[in-house]
Amino acid sequence: MTTSEAPGRKLTAKGLATRERIVRAAAQLIYELGAQNTNNDQIRQAAGVSGSQLTRHFPTKESLVRAVLAWQADSIIARHQAPELGELDSFAALHWWADSYIASQDMLRGGCTFGSLAAEVVKTEPIHREAVAVGFERWHELFKRGLSKMRERGELRPEADPAALAHLLTAAFQGGALLDQAAGDSTPLRDALYGALDYVESFAAER
């Protein structure tokens, strides 16, 4: 579910804008404080909405957290679809992807926006497990599709497994981002991503 969707009813343009503002404010607060430490008053003040507006769009905290998960997943997908990355279907694009995150101060400050929230709620609030799984699957599919195209073009050897390599890239990113956050140093993420890319490139076809 994206922030432009509201189950069961149509929203006016003003309603959509209000809903988007609430989700953005909640996403920022949850990223900084965690879902458990974020309350309605904080969200209401940050979004500049009334209590009735907040509950009209999100009658429960669970519905708001689901919307934030979807919004964070959308943001991650959008970043991975930047023009410079094409379809993530070249070694150059994969290196550009890695370098852009290694240079990001967000990784040092709070880790991956989607992964940080996913790690918190998947254990404490099992109701959100499906939303987390869907978000990661969308992310995984981007890498899998690009790697599949590289194999189809003969840039990767036939024995390369796009699904397995896509899992490797997403896992290296998540683990490296967590270590970056803990250490306040981009070295762990750099080592994890470059190590994963080295393994992907070990399947490069002979020229």
Describe the structure.
- The chain is mainly α and 207 residues long.
- The protein has helices at 13-33, 40-47, 51-57, 61-79, 91-102, 105-110, 113-124, 129-152, 162-183, 187-201.
- The protein is elongated, with a radius of gyration of 19 Å.
- It starts with 12 loop residues before the first helix and ends in a 6-residue tail after the last helix.
- Residues 1-7 have low confidence and may be disordered.
Write the layout of secondary structure elements.
Layout: H1 13-33, H2 40-47, H3 51-57, H4 61-79, H5 91-102, H6 105-110, H7 113-124, H8 129-152, H9 162-183, H10 187-201
Helix pairs in contact: 1-2, 1-4, 4-7, 4-8, 5-10, 8-9, 9-10
Notable characteristics:
about 210 residues; elongated
The number of strands is 0
Tally the helices: what do you get?
10
Portion in strands: under 5%
Radius of gyration from the alpha-carbon trace, in angstroms:
19 Å
Shape: elongated
DSSP helix fraction? over 70%
Class per helix and strand makeup: mainly alpha
Distance between the termini: 44 Å
Order of helices and strands: HHHHHHHHHH
Major β-sheet profile: none
Low-pLDDT stretches: 1-7
On the 0 to 100 scale, the average pLDDT is 88
What's this, in brief?
Helices cover 71% and strands 0% of the residues. With 207 residues, it is an all-alpha fold.
